[in-house]
Amino acid sequence: MRGHVLRLLALILLPLAAWAQEPPAATLIADRVAVVGNSQLVAEGHVEVLYEGARLKAVRVVYDRPTDKLTIEGPLTLVTENDAILLADSAELTPDLTEGLLVSARMVLRQQLQLAANELHRVGGRYSVLNKTVASSCRVCAGSPIPLWQIRAQRIIHDEQEKQLYFDHARFEVMGVPILYLPRLRLPDPTLKRANGFLIPELRFSDGLGSGIKLPYFITLGRHADLTVTPYLSTGRTRTLELRYRQAFRHGEIEFNGALSRDTLVKGETRRYLFGEGRFDLPRDFELTFNIQTVSDPAYLLDYGYSGRDRLRSDIAVARTRRDKHVEAALYYYNSLRASEDNRTLPTSLADLSWQRRFEPGLLGGIAKLSLEAHAHHRRSNADVLGRDVARAAARLDWRRSWTTAAGLRIATLGQMNLDYTGLADDAATPDPVTRAAPFAAVELRWPLVRAGRGGATQVLEPVVQLVWSDDDDSTLPNEDSVSVEFDEGNLFALNRFPGADAYEDGLRANLGLSWTRHAAQGWSLALAAGRVLHAETPKQFAAGSGLDGLSSDWLAVVQLKTADNLSLTNRAVFDDSFAFTRNELRLAWTTERVGLASSYVWQEANLAESRSIDSSEWVVDAGYRFRDNWIGKADWRYDFVADRAAHAGVGLEYRNECVTLDLSLSRRFTSSTSVRPTTDFGLQISLNGFGAGGDASAYRRTCSR
Fold this sequence. Notes:
The protein has 706 residues and is mainly beta. The protein has two helices and 41 strands. The strands form two sheets. The protein has a 26-stranded antiparallel barrel. Strands 1, 2, 3, 4, 5, 6, 7, 8, 9, 10, 11 and 12 form a twelve-stranded antiparallel sheet that branches. The longest helix has 15 residues, at 2-16. The radius of gyration is 36 Å and the shape is elongated. Helices cover 3% and strands 58% of the residues. The chain has a domain at 1-98: lipopolysaccharide transport protein A fold.
């Protein structure tokens, strides 16, 4: 009670101290306050001095009016207006806490970087000057008093306004061993988000490019734009300049990444690439997006590890999506890097325009959707058939209405009408133009049966029968966009399983399916689904290997298991009555605090219609494991069982604590072609935490053991 009274008394006495009848520069709170003579005010016990955004806590504070100084006995803590924390044994400061001397001081920035010095001078409320100092963000324990790294300097100046640290005669030490000396050094403090300067360097070792180093330099271009310039030098193999430009606008943003190279892999040529993307909000809820991808030669992206893409796409699109409407216009340009493809005979230039509206027809009821589309693509070749150009206008109307009986049976009727007009050029074998009308009609029966079992488990059994009719497609239109047909649970009950508009599924057929799901109270679930398609007549549209050829299609079976600890197992298979598989896919995923695992196995039968002359069989693994709080191991693997060799393999190791991040990576690409060769790459990146706002590593802070 006495302490509170004395604090209140101090608040009253200080403003009433009629030394010149001026308002005080600071507010003082303490347990005991005494006036000594006519010149000193002494505060003791839980002393706090507040001035604007600064706060001082100490054991004893003496204010001397003739010198206008605060003499402070510690241990003391001073939190500045910019949230820097200063700790010291004693100090002498001005009443506004902006100038003065702190003895045996320590500065803590953003609870990460620590700077210790014999003396710390506060200058103008902006600068902190530390003499004979050491800086580190590493935790120091009694058993290991030497930090993992530290920077010793004769003087460090911290500029709170510019958020910079200036080192004089800096010596960088690792485990107490001097490694590097710099007469002058400037680094950003942990509160700075953007400033000109060097970023974390990266070492790369590649049998294709040799040993090299990347040294990125960041340049701010105003508040909303920046440029990163990264020279990449290797041992006689490459001279590369990488560039990244970013800019944010009021209603959008853009980013461009590119590089220029001169190397011995492609002698006498300047190799280059440019990837760019952007997004802008337009009036009336429209959105503009663009994407640019270009490269000088097919092997450049893989040689330098910029991308694994083998087909590049540049596009610009304007779209708007509302609750019941969608409109989009887009232009595309494709460039294939595959040795087996010729860009002169591929449709590299495309244009699409689509308009969709969903509505409820008053007379029929249900939900309907009207779609209007226009499409055109162009080949650079003028050769007959190989250089075919196509332009199409199409309209599509979909309709669906459902009823539920008293017994829970769901009955639905579906309809679809497709009308299109297609013009062709450079194709003497196909009449021009081609006009088609493709009607679809279907009836669907679903009967979901739900059962609640013991212990809170729930089971759902749902048989589905769908009878579909569509007119025979006897047009002579070449099929270019509907060659690849993937038979899965997503299109088992689709009226048309062709993905594009060049082909329509025709004839009378029945789509049959049965699914069963069990949800257990313990948090795990198991789902089984199976189905197939029965045709009235043997279809001639589907190629062998699609799973849909024949009077009866192959069986489609799906098994999915999910456990409470985030383990999921999915198997999707397509096979015939004799269990000969057309496609089989197995995927395993597991995510915990320590484990991240994703593994897939895919087997597909050869399909000449999809340009797969041989069977394909691959196994892919992507895994990560945190075997300690600060250590993470990573691995990825892709194996080709048909070729009986690995296609790609990589391992990585990351160590992170409160003061350092170490990232090691090793990868090997085994595949080769006429433009690329097998290569091995090794990467090393080390960053010192505590400089710049690159991320808070406090979650990885180590603890001191006894």
